[in-house]
Amino acid sequence: MTTIALVQALQQQKAFFATGKTRELAFRKDMLQRLATAIAQEEESITQALAEDFHKPAFETYATEIAIVLSEIKFILKHLDKWARPRKVKSSFLNFPSKDYIYPEPYGISLVIGAWNYPFQLTLSPLIGSMAAGGCTFLKPSELTPATSQVIAHLVEKHFPAEYVMVVQGGPEVSQELLQLSFDKIFFTGSTAVGKIVAQAAASQLIPVTLELGGKSPCLVDETANLEVAAQRIVWGKYLNAGQTCVAPDYVLVQESVQRPLLEQLQKTITQFYTASPQQSQDYARIINDRHFERLQKLLQASKVYFGGQTDASQRYMAPTLLTDVTWEQPIMQEEIFGPLLPVLPFKTLPEALQQITQREKPLALYFFSNDQAAQEMVLAQTSSGGACINDTISHLANPHLPFGGVGTSGQGNYHGKASFLAFSHQKSVLKKPFWPEVNLRYPPYQDKLNWMKKAFDWL
Ligand code: NAD
């Protein structure tokens, strides 16, 4: 689309928003329901598109792209009446007599920029928040998953007018153009590097922004953990989507005394999950493109392989791989891996491991496997991360009661469930007064009213 066409499309959405239609609760619910029906109807084409884009297994597509979005709609529909209505709060004695409220109102027209690794969910889930809040939306899905982006565009065009939701396809240049326009809210999912570009563009127009970014999410295992169960949960979280998950365990820090048995369990589990030749497995995805494949290949070549390590560039296949003897100075420990390479590093004491984590940027997720409750609380208290699981990986993001988002360089703001509604809403503070009685303590001439005012503050 040309810049002029984008500007016109935005004006159309602004005009539609100004009619007030999108703020009507019945309209919002109707649109959410329509979206759910459309997704259910398109299940087959969504699954095919993701398989075409990077061999995503049908099971993973259903669980992590379709079901998660449908359950989000269901959850929001169940609670929207309550969230959307004005909420009465206590009034201040100083304003007597008054009644005070919080009125949630939609920001207006939102720009959602999505990432490729869960291309359907990461674009549609923010859309649900924007619809629930009562706004209009521009969606810019990732250019790296063209088949899925096409399905999203088709689905939106078929079921929604462009003045309400529209899809703009393209890469960074299109994002850059969109970022010049005057949206009321920007919701970005992607890398920390691009997140900074988006934040700067938003700041130049003072547009509120949510940034869902990445980072190196650590996974700690101490000697009290059940290693067999820990290995299953780590292997699942790491190799799901071939490691291309923002909250995948990036690396494992394991207590020295159990490093060897954990490695054995991890190896055994990989074979159980993906057979002895994962390349033949229908349950294992591929690397998204050649650029990422080559990046991962370089990291792999500079590392010591404990298990796995096979690659096939023609299919962008990289085996589920365990790496040992890794140091913090190696490139693999300097950047988010975002692929099926799992460095396993030993630690002697928990404080030593925590020091390694807290010296670095705040991660999007942190995982701790331990049977020691005091140690669990210590890890939660002494580290900062977007989210965390004790004795599991990834699963916290599937609970709509838990806000999902990063902290520091892993992001700002959050979404899912009520947090999605709030991400696209302004909380307007409203004070209502009757004309009578009129308390004139605050008006000039002040004369001896200062003493009264001081007494009033003392009573508070
Ligand atoms: P990316 O930052 O390269 O791209 C994300 C989006 O930004 C795409 O739509 C892309 O077209 C656009 N973009 C790219 N360069 C741009 C530029 N210079 N200016 C404006 N827009 C630009 O990220 P990606 O490779 O698609 O996704 C992987 C990253 O996203 C990883 O770091 C991962 O951890 C993170 N991620 C985070 C979450 C989360 O929920 N926190 C979820 C998925 C992925």
Automatic annotation (TrEMBL):
Family, similarity comment: Belongs to the aldehyde dehydrogenase family.
Keywords from the UniProt entry: Oxidoreductase
Domain Aldehyde dehydrogenase residues, every copy: 9-430
Active site residues according to the UniProt entry: E212
Species, as recorded: Nibribacter koreensis
One Pfam family in the UniProt entry: Aldedh
InterPro entries according to UniProt: Ald_DH/histidinol_DH (IPR016161), Ald_DH_C (IPR016163), Ald_DH_CS_CYS (IPR016160), Ald_DH_CS_GLU (IPR029510), Ald_DH_N (IPR016162), Aldehyde_DH_dom (IPR015590), Aldehyde_DH_NAD(P) (IPR012394)
Protein name in the entry: Aldehyde dehydrogenase
